[in-house]
From TrEMBL:
Organism ancestry: Bacteria, Pseudomonadati, Pseudomonadota, Alphaproteobacteria, Hyphomicrobiales
Subcellular location: Periplasm
UniProt organism field: Kaistia terrae
InterPro entries the UniProt entry points to: Peptide/Ni-bd (IPR030678), SBP_5 (IPR039424), SBP_5_dom (IPR000914)
Keywords: Signal
SUPFAM superfamilies attached to this UniProt entry: Periplasmic binding protein-like II
Listed name of the protein: ABC transporter substrate-binding protein
Major localisation: periplasm
Length: 498
């Protein structure tokens, strides 16, 4: 049955090609995509929906990062500085939302203003933003803090562009439009009729899989044309299947561990540094069959990445715990004033590598006398925001706009919207202030290096790995090339690549 289904789909692809279209199926033969994540809803202001909706090919930004990592215009045509706090952004003419309404300065301004009023992450770089439509294609943008590179700000994932409809819902401009949406399960997508090349674009069924093994089995059964985020342990087996293409690629994500500075045992930076020093990153890479030990906050191919692997030193870690008053009893367990040193370490299944790393982290902390309970949680953002954890293994793209500032500002600045660790340091905030006035890339890299050094010292986070990810493809999408981590899973060229 599996072979027959694949043969039928291949025949449909060939017929489509003969008919003069790209070598993908059309409306009668939608593409089937599976991944471990899906937008939580269609409200672009909620959580990380801005990222997810762009990843699904539904929405766009004013600026974006292309497959070569270069910051480029997307819905914008240009941006020019007016004064220290003011920029003028010119939109591309002729662009439309999926309902046919023009992507106008007025519509874009209203949508972005709505986002900045409802999503703290959108304020990370420029603070409060104000928008004024000067003419149908020109927006005057005023920032609370100086922003030397407004293009990078508008490539940040919270600032997806949309129009607000009369009922308060959003309409987007990407190559695909939503036909139906089942929360936490499935999105049916159709070609946005107002996006160039719509006639060549197949409908797509995008499904969320609760675990990586289910995703793998669906690919092997011929149920998917694209499986994004396959577990590393399945790759050798999948590569033996002649009906599949497996592609692996480095990503801008970092695997890291948030250390909750509000928890009693972790208020002391010496304890946090001890945890960081206890982790052997090479063992983590072995556990997930790939990736490189982290050098800091950024993947190694970025010019502002660190150059040296984060150290492992169990003896120094033990000495730090001793100095912090956590002594070892006859049972080998640490305690202080009668309280045991116990940590709850979390991971989430949408990133299966993190789950695979959990037992390794537990085993690495055990020799120090730290008792660890591990848990897997579904709603990672909600749990992280609640602060109900000690250590949280996390996957984060740390330079989504090709610039180092957003991650640091949104995640570790005092009171920032994504500051899940509760970290607060006036000295660190002062370092980040330098991003607001410096536009030279080399000097911005220096600021990033200084900020990372401060994080190494205070240890609200432990940077673990720069991972490699894997996608599986049927013959219908064998020409698909992954890029942009998971920020551009579905793209306008998804069919044209074949």
């Amino acid at each position: 049955m599996k072979t027959m289904l694949r043969a039928l789909r291949t025949s449909a692809v060939l017929l489509a090609s003969v008919a003069g279209f790209a070598t993908v199926a059309h409306a009668a033969d939608p593409l089937r995509v599976g991944a471990s994540f899906i937008a939580s809803g269609l409200d672009p202001t909620k959580g990380s929906n801005g990222w997810a909706l762009a990843s699904h090919g539904i929405g766009e930004n004013l600026f974006s990062v292309d497959k070569d990592g270069v910051l480029v215009p997307e819905l914008a045509a240009s941006a020019e500085r007016v004064d220290k706090l003011t920029w003028r952004v010119r939109l591309k003419p002729g662009r439309q939302f999926s309902d046919g309404a023009p992507v106008s300065a007025e519509a874009v301004s209203a949508g972005l203003a709505h986002t900045t009023a409802n999503n703290k992450a959108a304020l990370a770089t420029g603070g409060k933003l104000a928008f004024q439509a000067e003419d149908p294609l020109t927006i005057k943008v005023t920032t609370e803090r100086p922003v030397p590179l407004i293009q990078a700000l508008f490539a940040e994932w919270p600032l997806i562009v949309y129009g607000l409809k009369a009922d308060g819902s959003a309409v987007f401009s990407g190559p695909y439009a939503v036909q139906s949406f089942k929360p936490d399960a499935e999105i049916e997508l159709v070609a946005n009729p107002h996006f160039d090349g719509a006639e060549k674009r197949s409908p797509i069924t995008y499904r969320k899989f609760g675990d990586a093994q289910a995703l793998t089995l669906a690919l092997e059964a011929g149920e998917l044309d694209l499986a994004f985020g396959l577990p590393a342990e399945s790759i050798a087996r999948l590569k033996k299947d002649p009906d599949l293409a497996i592609k692996s690629f480095p990503v801008g994500y970092q695997y890291l561990a948030y250390l909750n500075t509000r928890k009693p045992a972790l208020t002391d930076a010496r304890v946090r540094r001890a945890i960081d020093l206890a982790i052997d990153r090479s063992q983590l890479a072995t556990a997930i069959n790939g990736g490189l030990p982290a050098t800091g906050a950024y993947a190694p191919y970025f010019p502002f990445a660190g150059k040296e692997t984060r150290p492992t030193d169990a003896a120094k870690a033990a000495a730090l715990l001793d100095a912090a008053g956590w002594t070892t009893g006859v049972d080998g367990k640490r305690s202080k004033e009668g309280a045991p040193l116990e940590l709850t370490v979390l991971a989430y299944p949408q990133r299966p590598d993190l789950v695979a790393m959990l037992p390794v982290v537990k085993a690495q902390l055990a020799p120090l006398g730290i008792a660890v309970e591990t848990k897997i949680v579904e709603n990672a953002n909600d749990v992280a925001a609640s602060g109900d954890y000690d250590v949280f293994l996390w996957a984060q793209h740390t330079a989504p706009s090709g610039d180092p500032a957003f991650f640091l500002n949104s995640t570790f600045r005092t009171g920032a919207g994504l500051n899940f660790t509760g970290y607060s340091s006036p000295d660190f905030d002062a370092i980040l202030d330098g991003f607001a006035t410096e536009s030279d890339p080399a000097k911005r890299a220096d600021i990033a290096a200084h900020a990372q050094q401060k994080l190494f010292e205070d240890a609200p986070v432990s940077f673990l790995l720069s991972p490699v990810w894997h996608v599986g493809l049927s013959k219908a999408l064998s020409g698909y090339e992954p890029w942009g981590s998971d920020y551009h899973v579905l793209r306008a060229d998804i069919g044209e690549a074949n």
